[in-house]
Specification:
5-stranded mixed sheet, 5 strands, alpha/beta, 191 residues, Rossmann fold
């Protein structure tokens, strides 16, 4: 008989996995509370680097079922999700995603769906990069400077270097110029 596990993830501590657990139960999956893994960690962290997901991987055996509410619970990177699902399939674990109609992502139809989703994700990423580069090129063409504005003028940087050379403390200069110690140290190190 297959054991059913659930993986529920949220990104921040002010969020809760309770809705995901309820959604999995409502979909008809009976998951023993000992087989529910919850984690508070960003989806941008690879699944292989998540402490609770790694613990879950140790428990899973051939014939088990892993249920997630959405693909983004496994990760935000299409390649990471694909590697995770493929790794689970290799050890004989089926992965069901409720947002995809409870589809088993390790089945032939699930693999096809994963391929399409992966292709779309890569396309969206490429479009985002393209739009970002076009925006940066437009801003540069308009003569605008990119990045954070400098907190110190070139003249102030020269003054700070001179005062540092004469023995004035970094913290005192930061207070005098209304900036951070790190900024003063960057000016010092850039000399």
């Amino acid at each position: 008989m297959s054991r059913v596990f659930a993986y529920c993830r949220v990104s921040t501590a002010d969020q809760t996995t309770a809705n995901q657990i309820q959604e999995i139960a409502s979909a008809g999956f009976r998951v023993d509370s000992r087989r529910v893994t919850t984690e508070t960690i960003s989806g941008s962290v690879l699944s292989s680097k998540r402490p609770r997901f790694r613990e879950l991987m140790i428990k899973l055996e051939a014939g088990d079922v892993l249920v997630v509410t959405k693909l983004d619970r496994l990760g935000r990177n299409a390649m990471d999700i694909r590697e995770t699902v493929d790794g689970l399939a290799k050890i004989g674990v089926r992965v069901h995603c409720l947002a995809l109609g409870g589809m088993d992502l390790t089945s032939p139809a699930g693999k096809m769906t994963m391929s399409v989703i992966g292709a779309i994700a890569e396309f969206e990423k490429d479009l985002l990069v393209e739009r970002t580069q076009a925006g940066l090129a437009r801003v540069k063409a308009e003569g605008k400077t990119l990045g954070r504005p400098q907190s110190l003028s070139d003249a102030q940087a020269i003054e700070i270097r001179e005062k540092l050379a004469s023995g004035v403390a970094v913290a005192a200069l930061a207070r005098e110029y209304g900036t951070s110690r790190q900024t003063v140290m960057r000016v010092r190190d850039a000399a």
